[in-house]
């Protein structure tokens, strides 16, 4: 497909389809409607002359100043030998050729991106081409919006490209929401806490039990039950035999503590970990739940930096996708404008499809209507 110049009765553009061009009307064209920012902002260097830039706004002003339509001006300028052309006509032809060349380049990039690129590359390349196609038809239509829209409404390829971009954006939004939900804290996910302030001192909670005293208590317990020779299996959970927390037997190298509040015996190291933990009952005896001391102050534990950065990146990408869709809406408004229902339709259909997919896949996140400005 190649970009060619508009003729007397039609303009063949880079898509290969023909759109009407107002060449038979010799009256002065109506003043152009205000150009939107996306139309006048780009200045692209030409392919064969990188040092020379092409200004859409300057070219549009040139077209608006002429008494003939774009097609008539082009035909008249091409009919004059190069050495006899006026400077304004020479500049007009140069700008026309630059526009066709840029449009051809944008089409090649869009086609290559469609074949090999990932979604953002595809969408950006297609949007860039659609934008330039809309600009070109607007210029070829002598800055007449109604004729521009009449040409683009019947351009099947133009509409299909728009629908493809909307489809890509919707798919990318769904994939991003799915990944984002995996990173966000779930409603049923328990909050993680961290303690604030100094740690508890276990020596203020209980006293060390000397080894002879401990072994005497263990012997008395066995004698009371009449099962002195049995292994410890029957007494596994007794606080005098082993630590209630780790279930290890006590030893003379690691003497336990007897708690002041309830007289239960607990391993020193385990008690320290327990008292300085983040559990709600960490200030109670792990054996009988008697209160031992004041609860250490605690606060929700900050999210891991890596996880927070990933969430921010995903949210930022959703914002970028929203802006990308806004560009598509601008192109739709320029291409088919006048009927805002046509603009809203694309947003509504994408929103319904994305949210239906989220529901189908059990994803709790949804796209709000404000996101697509329906």
Automatic annotation (TrEMBL):
Q: Name one GO molecular function term.
A: ubiquitin protein ligase activity
What domain of life does the UniProt record list for this protein's source? Eukaryota
Keyword DNA-binding among record annotations: no
UniProt keyword Zinc present = yes
Annotated segments matching region Disordered: 1-52
User: One biological-process term from Gene Ontology?
Assistant: protein ubiquitination
Q: Which residues form the RING-type domain?
A: 243-289
Q: Which Pfam families match?
A: zf-RING_2
SUPFAM superfamilies recorded: RING/U-box
Listed InterPro entries: Znf_RING, Znf_RING/FYVE/PHD
Instruction: Return the Polar residues bias intervals.
Output: 1-27
| Keywords carried by this UniProt record | Metal-binding, Zinc, Zinc-finger
Q: Which Gene3D superfamilies match?
A: Zinc/RING finger domain, C3HC4 (zinc finger) (3.30.40.10)
Official protein name in the record: RING-type domain-containing protein
Say which species the protein is native to. Answer: Massariosphaeria phaeospora
């Amino acid at each position: 497909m190649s970009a060619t110049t508009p003729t007397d009765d039609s303009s063949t553009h880079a898509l290969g389809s023909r759109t009407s061009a107002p060449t038979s009307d010799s009256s002065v064209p109506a003043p152009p409607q205000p150009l939107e920012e996306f139309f006048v902002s780009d200045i692209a260097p030409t392919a064969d002359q990188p040092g020379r830039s092409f200004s859409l706004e300057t070219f549009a002003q040139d077209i608006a100043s002429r008494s003939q339509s774009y097609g008539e001006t082009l035909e008249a300028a091409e009919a004059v030998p190069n050495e006899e052309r006026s400077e304004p006509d020479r500049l007009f032809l140069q700008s026309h050729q630059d526009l066709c060349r840029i449009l051809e380049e944008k089409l090649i990039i869009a086609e290559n991106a469609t074949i090999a690129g990932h979604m953002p590359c595809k969408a950006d390349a297609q949007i860039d081409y659609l934008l330039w196609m809309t600009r070109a038809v607007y210029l070829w239509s002598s800055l007449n919006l109604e004729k521009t829209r009449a040409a683009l409404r019947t351009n099947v390829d133009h509409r299909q490209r728009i629908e493809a971009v909307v489809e890509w954006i919707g798919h990318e939004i769904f994939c991003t929401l799915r990944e984002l939900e995996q990173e966000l804290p779930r409603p049923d996910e328990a909050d993680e806490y961290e303690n604030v302030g100094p740690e508890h001192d276990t020596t203020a909670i209980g006293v060390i039990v000397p080894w002879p005293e401990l072994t005497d208590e263990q012997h008395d317990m066995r004698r009371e039950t009449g099962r002195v020779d049995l292994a410890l299996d029957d007494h596994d959970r007794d606080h005098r035999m082993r630590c209630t927390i780790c279930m290890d037997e006590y030893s003379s190298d690691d003497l336990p503590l007897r708690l002041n509040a309830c007289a239960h015996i607990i391993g020193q190291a385990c008690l320290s970990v327990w008292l300085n933990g983040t559990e709600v009952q960490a200030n109670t005896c792990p054996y009988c739940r008697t209160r031992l001391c004041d609860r250490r102050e605690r606060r929700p534990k900050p999210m891991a930096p890596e996880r927070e950065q990933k969430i921010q990146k995903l949210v930022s990408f959703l914002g970028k996708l929203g802006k990308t869709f806004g560009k598509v809406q601008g192109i739709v408004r320029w291409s088919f404008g006048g009927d805002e229902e046509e603009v809203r339709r694309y947003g509504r259909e994408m929103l319904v499809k994305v949210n239906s997919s989220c529901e189908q896949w059990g994803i709790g996140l949804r796209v709000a209507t404000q996101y697509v400005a329906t």
